Amino acid sequence: MTTKLDDIIDSVESELNSLILDGTINAKKVWFTDVDDLTIQYPSVLFILRNAERNDMQVIQSSSRISWNLNYDVFCLYSGLEGKQKFTHARRFVDSVYNLLQTQHAPGQRLNGECFDIECASIEYGIVALETPKQTTVTGGVIKLVIQVIELF
Known about the structure:
Blueprint: H1 5-22, E1 29-31, E2 44-54, E3 65-79, H2 86-102, H3 110-113, E4 117-131, E5 135-152
Parallel strand pairs: 1-2
Antiparallel strand pairs: 2-3, 3-5, 4-5
């Protein structure tokens, strides 16, 4: 069985999309590409794949498989129309996305078996700036997500 990295990324992103939209966090939209600011609905989640780097876990590597770390920035866009509570509510939304992603770290989860492991490396709260046709800023946060996958060839 051959699994190429590009196919693995498509499968992982499909599972992430389902996880977020089917979760109990009330996310309206999930993106993996450029965002058109006319289509932004709040709250929503934007996954940007920053890089794929070889994982040096010797136990996994062999002549027929390579382990990769997919490094995502997960932008949690809340908006913040709540006046004095906007940062509190935005932080709670970011935490709910984090908690949902962390459920996938448990054995038997792992994006329905599409990845070897998944972990949230860090969380930043505050203002999120998006590079849309014009710069858009909203309250929310960014989660650094590392997903380990195995390419077979």
